[in-house]
Every structure is written in C-alpha cells, then in structure tokens.
Amino acid sequence: MSDAVAVRVNERTLEQLKNGNIVGECSLSGNGWVYPSDGWSDFPVIILGWWFTAFQRAGSRVGASALCRFMDGPYGFRITSVHEGRLLLECLAEN
C-alpha cells in the first residue's frame, strides 16, 4: 500500500528573525497522520534545502537512501528508493 506524502508549510506562520532566518510551521503529512506534529515550528527554508538535496540523492538509483532532519528537536526521516519513482519513508526520533 502506498500513500502520498506532503510537505506542509503554513505560510501564515512564517516570520523572519533579526538574523535573517525564517521560522514557521512545517511538517510532513499523509493519509491521517502528521509528523512530527501538527503546528510544528522549525526553519522551513533551511530544512527544505537540505531535503531537496536528500531527495535528489535518494532518487538517483534503487536502493539509495538519505536522512532528512528537522533543525529543532530529535526528529527526522529516512527516505529510501525502493522502486523507480517510489520512496520508502521512515519517521525517526532520536533519544
């Protein structure tokens, strides 16, 4: 079974800090789930750049994988190419 996964960024919550970084709500969502949580605040511009690079790496060949992290908290996820055009997503939380 496969579900589509969306990267959600709530535009209404974006705020530029004095140092220039942008913070706001960002998370992953699928059919009935949100990770790491609904309303999770992080640095979307920075992490989306990291994730884009990771998705390129993982999508380069079957069996390739990459780790994607959130900047805040112990949360991240691993993506692994399991078939051309299909990725396995594993949500992680480090202790």
Q: Pick out the low-confidence regions.
A: none
Overall shape:
globular
The end-to-end distance, rounded to whole angstroms, is 29 Å
The pLDDT mean sits at 92
Number of strand segments: 8
Order of helices and strands: EEEEEHEEE
Q: What summary fits the major beta sheet?
A: 5 strands, antiparallel
C-alpha Rg, in Å? 14 Å
Q: Which structural class fits the helix and strand makeup? A: alpha+beta
- Measured as a percent range, the helix fraction is 10-25%
- Given the structure, what is the number of helices? 1
Portion in strands:
35-45%
- Please tell me the total number of domains: 1
What's this model, at a glance?
This protein has 95 residues and is of the alpha+beta class.
How is this structure best described in words?
It is a single chain. The protein has 95 residues and is α+β, with helices and mostly antiparallel strands. The protein has one domain (6-93). The protein has one helix at 44-58; strands spanning 6-9, 15-16, 22-30, 33-35, 41-42, 65-69, 75-83, 86-93. Strands 1, 2, 3, 4 and 5 form a 5-stranded antiparallel sheet that branches. It has a 3-stranded antiparallel sheet with strand order 6-7-8, covered by helices on one side. The model has no long low-confidence stretch (mean pLDDT 92).
Strand and helix layout:
Layout: E1 6-9, E2 15-16, E3 22-30, E4 33-35, E5 41-42, H1 44-58, E6 65-69, E7 75-83, E8 86-93
Antiparallel strand pairs: 1-3, 2-3, 3-4, 3-5, 6-7, 7-8
